[in-house]
Amino acid sequence: MAAVSIVAETAADEASREALLDRAMGPGRRRKSSEKLRRGRKPSEGLAFVARGADGAVVGTVRLWDVTAGENGVGALLLGPLAVDPSLKSAGVGSALMRLAIGEARRLGHKAILLVGDAPYYARFGFSAEKTGELAMPGPYERHRFLALELVDGALDGAKGVLKAAGRKLPKMAAAA
């Protein structure tokens, strides 16, 4: 991890980030249910990060997105994708990205983070399916992989229904690309 630095993502990182996501997640990544919530939107303000190797190359990424958690309009964040270059798996890059993302979300006053992912991996950061029972993703997903972390106790109490995209929209031309 010593040769990796984590910084705020910039517009110049976009092509490298997309190439990393293709390498790490494969071609089916754009068909995921969580992608529907991200399409045409910008990440939540101040919550998009990249990890750079010693040569400056993007070797990891994480973003958080504004969503509304269900019918009663509970504001939350959707985390994802989290990806690390396959050559650096198990080097601590993903964990470092997660710790930073959660810490920044908390610092910025967000109340809860949701994601679809591997429960054993995300449990180490406090995520569980305990608060997602009445919530749903738009489109197909594996229910046991739908996890939440409350940054404020009780933030998801009473939340039910389908997640909806919220937050900043991309300019029309960028959203079409």
Describe this structure in words.
The protein has 177 residues and is an alpha+beta fold. It has helices at residues 14-25, 33-38, 93-107, 119-123, 172-176, and strands at 5-8, 48-52, 58-69, 74-79, 83-84, 112-116, 135-136, 146-150, 161-165. It has a single domain (5-176), classed as Aminopeptidase (3-Layer(aba) Sandwich), CATH 3.40.630.30. Strands 1, 2, 3, 4, 5, 6, 7, 8 and 9 form a nine-stranded mixed beta sheet that branches. It starts with a strand and ends with a helix. The model has no long low-confidence stretch (mean pLDDT 91).
Task: Looking at this protein, list some descriptive labels.
single chain; 177 residues; alpha+beta; Aminopeptidase; nine-stranded mixed sheet; 5 helices; 24% helix; 26% strand; globular
Compose a concise summary of this entry.
Helix content is 24%, strand content 26%.
Beta-strand segment tally: 9
Q: How many structural domains can be distinguished in the coordinates?
A: 1
Helix content percent band: 10-25%
Structural class determined from secondary elements: alpha+beta
CATH superfamily, called what?
A: Gcn5-related N-acetyltransferase (GNAT)
- Give the CA-CA distance, first to last residue: 34 Å
- What portion of the residues fall into strands of 2 or more residues? 25-35%
Q: What is the H/E order?
A: EHHEEEEHEHEEEH
Q: Taking Cα atoms only, what radius of gyration do you get, to the nearest Å? A: 16 Å
The CATH architecture would be 3-Layer(aba) Sandwich
Q: Output the CATH topology.
A: Aminopeptidase
Categorize the overall geometry.
Answer: globular
- What's the tally of helices? 5
Overall pLDDT: 91
Low-confidence stretches: none
Largest sheet: 9 strands, mixed
CATH top level is: Alpha Beta
